[in-house]
């Protein structure tokens, strides 16, 4: 008597189907980061530079066709310096793009990418980001998943940083 479960063709088909399901289940998916940061609505970055300093003053001004993504490290221990503020990274985002990827110095300059401190003894300051990459994907009309990848600099050679978060319009 030929039992259906003992059929070699059935067993082979079962294992092929099982393997296909496992491979399909392992496919990379978009995972939403847990961290959330703010996106300033209708703003642009104004950077005021001085010839005798590498640091600049900055402000976020009204703009009809830009947003500003702002990452602020709020988890820094400020017990040693109560007027140091928080480190931040900011850059302009074109709200009409569904995706973007900035990797060259020219691209980072075009979106006015800056890093600095929210406050200090001298007030808030920033300097242009000249290397690294910033990429993002619009998920809704009000939010983007953005990855900021900064290389280590010469003063802190072991401190490269990768930040991934959901930036939401405020």
UniProtKB/TrEMBL annotation:
<protein>
    <submittedName>
        <fullName>Uncharacterized protein</fullName>
    </submittedName>
</protein>
């Amino acid at each position: 008597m030929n039992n259906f479960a003992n059929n070699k063709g059935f067993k082979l088909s079962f294992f092929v189907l099982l393997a296909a399901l496992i491979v399909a289940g392992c496919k990379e998916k978009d995972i939403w980061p847990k961290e959330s940061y703010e996106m300033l609505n209708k703003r642009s970055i104004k950077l005021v530079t001085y010839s005798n300093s590498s640091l600049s003053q900055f402000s976020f001004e009204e703009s009809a066709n830009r947003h500003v993504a702002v990452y602020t490290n709020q988890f820094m221990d400020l017990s040693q310096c109560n007027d140091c503020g928080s480190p931040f990274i900011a850059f302009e985002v074109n709200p009409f793009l569904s995706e973007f990827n900035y990797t060259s110095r020219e691209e980072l300059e075009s979106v006015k990418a800056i890093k600095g401190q929210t406050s200090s003894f001298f007030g808030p300051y920033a300097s242009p980001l000249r290397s690294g990459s910033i990429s993002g994907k619009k998920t809704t009309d009000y939010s983007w998943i953005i990855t900021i990848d900064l290389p280590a600099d010469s003063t802190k050679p072991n401190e490269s940083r990768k930040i991934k978060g959901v930036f939401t319009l405020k």
